[in-house]
Structure formats: structure tokens, C-alpha cells
Write a structure and sequence with these properties.
GO cellular component, one term: cytoplasm
GO molecular function: 4 iron, 4 sulfur cluster binding; metal ion binding; rRNA (adenine(2503)-C2-)-methyltransferase activity; rRNA binding; tRNA (adenine(37)-C2)-methyltransferase activity; tRNA binding
Binding site for [4Fe-4S] cluster: 112, 116, 119
Number of strands: 14
Structural class: alpha/beta
Number of helices: 10
Function: Specifically methylates position 2 of adenine 2503 in 23S rRNA and position 2 of adenine 37 in tRNAs.
Largest sheet: 10 strands, mixed
EC number: 2.1.1.192
CATH topology of the largest domain: TIM Barrel
CATH class of the largest domain: Alpha Beta
Radius of gyration: 21 Å
Helix content: 25-40%
Order of helices and strands: EHHHEEEEEEEHEHEHEHHEHEHE
Amino acid sequence: MTRDFCNLNRAEVLELVADMGQPAFRAQQLLGWVYGRQQLDIDSFTNVSKDFRAQLKQVIHMPRYKIVSVQQSQLDETRKILLELEDGQRVETVLIPINSKLSQCLSTQVGCRMGCTFCATASMGLRRNLTNSEVLAQIFAARELVAPHQYITNFIFMGMGEPLDNYEHTVRSIRTITDPEMMGYSHRHVTISTCGLVKGIERLAKEDLPCNLAISLHGVNDEQRSAIMPINRSGGIAALMGALRRFPLSSKKVITIEYLLIAGHNDSLEDARNLVKLLRGMRCKVNLIIYNSHEHADFSPTTRERALQFQRILAEKKIMTFIRKSAGADIDAACGQLAAAAKD
């Protein structure tokens, strides 16, 4: 049985090459082809011999996926890519345009078991975790579609699934993305978004992995948050806020607080004032997100006027606050709308 090359870290690639009786520089050649040139066809590795290529095919294979469909928003040119994996399971990834550059929203699971009632992915339940390679396959697939003048500059682990519920593969994929000998992106361009798994946040705090951290908060007290986010019932907001306050940040970084505004649930002006109290003293910024409707949940979005009032209360207390534009809402690609058709 062959091994998936993109499940290997740099040290494991070096070990693979050594086990094949090849010099260490062969590892650099392989990494250069796969991650530098985004080439997944072993036969195209023209600076290595045919014999070595034949050897490679006996021990490794490249990510196996198929692009099933690509939908493009008529509102903002966001693209939603549906991928089918080797076992027939399907995941979605989203390319979001920002001027001539792109951000990519990556999935880490087929479905999700967190049960957030506002999220379409939760309606699938958890089918399985993605491997490191299957996370990276989303990047390779996206690169097949982008124009030569476009460049994917940011990766946000905010697609299908909870990244910290698939901790090992999430961290390994980020290490591949940020390793200078592999994809070579700066940690500043990678964000993990979590619903608030406290043990996962605490574990991440001990990693040498200074990427950005975003928290889906969506409530200002336990009753309010637990009603739409079952994960809050284990520990509550106090435990979550404690983990965030202890999370190590470099001098220029802040934690991003994602706050979904749902009409009649968490969008009152009193909620805004309570959010100010909750965040007092924390190095953070707040992204307010007007709820994106979908068929899997019966909530209503707040009004634009109320979102502006909510933002004003936070801004008056010197909390950096943005109303985040939801990209791709017309193709169900916006926050909380991903729910790929998966194999049973």
C-alpha cells in the first residue's frame, strides 16, 4: 500500500527518501515540485530520473480528489468548490476575492458534531475527519481554478467542521502551509476559527504555531450561547474567556471574536453592552456577522440598522469592531451555509 505524500511532514519526506537509498537533496526536489510548483503528477518531476520516479510510484501517491462542481456568486465573484474525496465523501471549500488576491476558507471535517443550531454543516452530523492531505487537497484544487494574476494569500480554517475537533490533522496541515520548505506562507496569513473547544485552545496555546485565532462567540451569557451552541454546556463562557485571556499573543496580534447577529436572540442593545463587559481588557477585535439564512435553520437575520447600533456601542468603548460582509450568500457559501452532499 502506498502512502499519501501530502500526509508527510518535511522530516518524514527526508526519512522516506533516505529509506529509498537516495540523497537528502531529493527530498527538496520533491517538495519543490509538489508545494512550489503545485505539481501532483510524479511523471512531471523532470529533474529526477525515470527509475526514481518509478520507485516513487511504488511507495507514494498524491492527493486523490475530484472537483465535482464550482459555483460562482453573482454578487461578489466568490467561488464555492465541491470536492469528492477518494471514498466518495464530499466537502466544500470557498474562494473569497479581495481585490486581486484571494482568501480560502478550508474545511477540516465531513460534517460536524458540534451541533450549532444556526449552522447548515451541523445538519449533516459528523461523517469523518479529513486527513492533512485532504485539507491540502482543497488548496491544490483551488489553485487549478485561479487565474495567473490571482494569488491565494490567506487561509481560514472556517469551512465545514470544527478544526480543533480534528486537532492533529489541522495542526499538521498548518505546519505544511507555513513551513518555508513546503508552502511557505507566514503564520500571519493563517487563521483557525473555533466554536470554543477550551481544551483544544489550551493545547494550541502550547504549540509553536503562532497563527491567528478566531472564536465563534455568538452569545453574551451561558443561557443565550448554550441555546444555539451546545458546546457551551461544558464549561460555559467563563471557561472559554479564561482560556482566551491566557492564550499567548505576539505584540501585534489580537483574538478575533466572531459574533453572529440573530434577530430577537442576541442582537439587543443590552446584549451589545454586555459584550463590552465580557471583552473588557482583552486584546481583541470583533466581527459582527448578520445571520445568513438557509433551509436547515429557522432563524432571522438582524437588520442593518441594528447591526450599526450594535457596532456603535462597542466602538464607543474602544473595541475595534467591523460588520463583516458575508461573501457568496447567493450560492450558500457564506458563514454557516456550507453543507455538502455526502456519501452515506
